[in-house]
Specification:
7 helices, about 325 residues, binds flavin-adenine dinucleotide, alpha+beta, 17 strands, T-fold, three-stranded antiparallel β-sheet, binds magnesium ion
Amino acid sequence: MSSPERVYSYSATLMGSPILLKLFEDNQQAARAVFRLIKQLEDLLTVNREHSQLMNVNHAAGRHHVVVSEPVFELISQAKAVSLLPDSCFNLTIGPLVKRWKIGFHGDQVPSLSDIQSLLPLTQPEKVQLAPSSCSVFLEQAGMEIDLGAIAKGYIADRVRDLLRQMGIDHALINLGGNVLTLGSPQHAMQNAWGIGLQKPFGMPDELLGTIEVVGKSVVTSGIYERYFEQNGTIYHHILDPNTGYPLNNELLSVTVISDDSIDGDIYTTLLYGMGVEKSLCYLSTLPHIEAIFVTKSGEVILSSQRQFRFTLLDTDYHLA
Ligand code: FAD
Ligand code: MG
């Protein structure tokens, strides 16, 4: 019989990201089912291959509607709604700019200003037509492309949680590379909460800025040090400002969101990143179920509140504000 204190880790590379599943029993079958589910959803939602349901929509831009499956339709609808919030920096039609910058992919480079200016008119969320009765999507203008990179991992993490629960697993952790979702507490006599490392910005992969302790929560981090390149001393990262077409530039290095659902974490990390600290703290005071940790370029760590988590600062280059 397996000891309840033992952790079993299963890993895979999917969605161009290292995926880690932690369980408290050796359950290869569950791990296989989890990785299969992630692969199925990746196949529907990826924009990094020629074919997926999302790519079918993109290929038909300016020409015709495309019928998609219900989960894809729901996710596009949610991404559109978030994109249309007042002053939202989240834009599901950011695809043409993401493809042009190629940040995190081979061939990344700063596009010319004229290229950026010619692509900006293709990033208009209101031009995504949705027909719920037929689950179909139409992009009004040729060249438009939906990119769900800022929301899909969160959605997928939530579906993994549903699957684990269906299999009777109530204590587990799934890490989709930046999106961590915990189920229950760790089944460990010495540990009543999960300790999740917050990476030190631009540090070595195992260097931690601090740890976040949670039980049954999602912890999602978006940072400018995750995918970036440097050109002539300037860092260009992968969260783009839909108003300018260039990487968002403010006081932030990263935003971490602690929430029940990982889709909220994924949405809010991007939204709050665009708002900056001051506006975010004001906004979060109206959202008791969402909490955040901001790390700034001047070395400050700012916590919105600590109702759903505990934070321990480990790195002396940073201080709690
Ligand atoms: P977030 O901060 O949550 O989002 C940033 C990402 O969202 C950007 O990378 C971009 O895709 C998009 N984005 C940028 N600006 C905006 C904006 N203003 N509004 C909305 N969205 C924006 N990576 C690989 O290297 N190879 C792969 O084959 C690959 N396949 C993937 C397949 C799927 C289904 C998914 C979901 C991701 C895949 N990825 C792959 C990773 C992907 O390219 C992104 O890097 C990743 O989703 C970013 O997640 P994040 O949580 O770090 O960033
Ligand atoms: Mg996100």
